[in-house]
UniProtKB/TrEMBL annotation:
It holds the Pfam family Glyco_tran_WecG. Transmembrane segments: none annotated. It is an enzyme of class 2 (transferase). It comes from Paenibacillus taichungensis. Pathway: Cell wall biogenesis; teichoic acid biosynthesis. NCBIfam families: wecG_tagA_cpsF (TIGR00696). PANTHER family: PTHR34136, UDP-N-ACETYL-D-MANNOSAMINURONIC ACID TRANSFERASE (PTHR34136:SF1). InterPro entries: TagA_TarA, WecG_TagA_CpsF. Catalyzes the conversion of GlcNAc-PP-undecaprenol into ManNAc-GlcNAc-PP-undecaprenol, the first committed lipid intermediate in the de novo synthesis of teichoic acid. Belongs to the glycosyltransferase 26 family. TagA/TarA subfamily. This is N-acetylglucosaminyldiphosphoundecaprenol N-acetyl-beta-D-mannosaminyltransferase.
Length: 252
């Protein structure tokens, strides 16, 4: 499919989620690289939706992104429940790999930003082994403050990647990408959360049975009970959607 024109979306509390399949999403982003059009891709879940509802600055960041994909099962459920279904869940972890698979055909360049020095280095090594035709044009850890932003942006711009994957935590990675998107001039920049931890082998992804049952969030909670506070946003989101059913998908 050659997706032209605006991406079909459903508004969930004012946040425009893409209705495209994984395959269609990859095609849109392939075109973005070919036309050198900077795209910020946000892989969003209910926790991020709830955060945006409480934080106008985060809401602005999300509403101005070129593409928001439904990473969380709860988002897919909400769209369906309100009669505006998305095609399917588009997990950020899988989207990253699909983009690299396509990028191999063009020998596209990738820059990895975030996590710890050990994790980012191991991630670069493993991705290069898995996708030998991809060019890892640079990487650096996420331990830098705002005073170093200009230097980091300059080094990324000099490396001229086609894809920039950023792992700095949802509350910082999306605003950072939004702030520097024009200066970076990277065709596809995407926040990838904990993906580098999984790729590097530091943490394990949920077993297939949890993925199939759409319970990856529950597996993460079992492994990291400290996430319980954040996870409370999931039932709150579900209750809110059921209560607001008629108004969830109204464009704000």
């Amino acid at each position: 499919m050659n997706q032209t024109g605006p991406i079909p979306t459903v508004s969930i509390y004012g946040i425009p989620f893409s209705k495209l399949t994984m395959k269609e999403t990859v095609e849109v982003l392939r075109q973005a690289v070919l036309t050198k059009q900077p795209h910020q891709v946000i892989t969003a879940n209910p926790i991020m939706v709830m955060a945006a509802l409480e934080n106008p600055a985060m809401m602005k960041v999300m509403q101005s992104a070129e593409m928001i994909v439904p990473d969380g099962t709860g988002v897919v459920w909400a769209a369906n429940y309100c009669g505006e279904p998305v095609a399917e869940r588009v997990p950020g972890f899988e989207l990253l790999h699909e983009l690299l698979r396509v990028g191999e055909n063009y020998r596209w360049g990738v820059y990895l930003l975030g996590s710890t020095p050990e994790v980012i280095q191991e991630t670069a090594v493993r991705l290069q082994e898995q996708y030998p035709a991809i060019r890892i044009v640079g990487y650096r850890d996420g331990y830098f403050g705002s005073a170093e932003d200009d230097q980091v942006v300059a080094s990324i711009r000099e490396a001229a990647p086609d894809f920039l994957f950023v792992a700095r935590g949802a509350d910082t990675q999306e605003p950072w990408i939004h702030k520097y998107k024009d200066a970076l001039q990277v065709p596809v920049t995407m926040g990838v959360g904990g993906s580098f931890d999984v790729i590097s082998g530091k943490t394990k992804r949920a077993p297939k049975v949890f993925q199939k049952l759409r319970l990856e969030w529950f597996y993460r909670l079992l492994r990291e009970p400290s996430r319980a506070g954040r996870m409370l946003a999931l039932p709150k989101f579900a209750v809110k959607v059921m209560r607001d059913k008629e108004n969830v998908t109204k464009v704000r």
